[in-house]
Amino acid sequence: DAKTTQPPSMDCAEGRAANLPCNHSTISGNEYVYWYRQIHSQGPQYIIHGLKNNETNEMASLIITEDRKSSTLILPHATLRDTAVYYCIVTYNFNKFYFGSGTKLNVKP
Amino acid sequence: DAGITQSPRYKITETGRQVTLMCHQTWSHSYMFWYRQDLGHGLRLIYYSAAADITDKGEVPDGYVVSRSKTENFPLTLESATRSQTSVYFCASHGASGNGGELFFGEGSRLTVL
């Protein structure tokens, strides 16, 4: 499974878009990109996933570069409740979701 | 209600004791997982199971035992608890649909080993 690299922390102003990057330069063609978040000590929450194309749902958008070596999770209008740790995971094997350390997003008033 | 539940939510035990954390899901998902999360760190995969009677090691399996006699249950046992196993334990399940799919997590079991 490809390894991912994320910045340890980011700040975002409330109401602005939050853009969270993830580098996965060793990704292979059949590996999906997943994003999860964890608020406080709760269980992680699924946000979105994609293979090649950009994806959008009610929570976020996922932009995957054409070479698939990096991706960006976009929260279009961040709120204080979006303060959380965001995890980028790359896997083709649904047995193995490895979470890593993630990015702590701080949304500030 | 449908979902994934863990028990107990909180447990305090002593070094050397056996502890079992329970996980139950109502979706009949094939895949189930156990993770641990130490304070201030990300989740690490302990064990996973692809189906009843099929289990395999994750990143940090030492000191843990799992079983899966029924699809809906995936208990995690610490046969002789150590202080280093103090952590929050999360169970998850996955339906493994053809286009990918999401992990659903339980609320976690906070274990303290004295």
Task: Indicate the mean pLDDT of chain B.
Answer: 92
Q: Can you give the helix content of chain A as a percent range?
A: under 10%
How does the helix and strand content of chain A classify structurally? mainly beta
Largest sheet of chain A: 5 strands, mixed
User: Strand fraction band of chain B?
Assistant: over 45%
Question: Rough shape of chain A?
Answer: globular
Shape of chain B: globular
Distance from first to last alpha carbon of chain A = 38 Å
Q: Catalogue the unreliable spans of chain A.
A: none
Show the largest interface. Answer: A-B, 22 and 29 residues
* Number of beta strands of chain A: 9
Number of helices of chain B: 0
Notable traits:
heterodimer, A: 109 residues, mainly beta, 5-stranded mixed β-sheet, 4-stranded antiparallel β-sheet, 9 strands, 46% strand, globular, B: 114 residues, 7-stranded mixed β-sheet, 0% helix, 50% strand
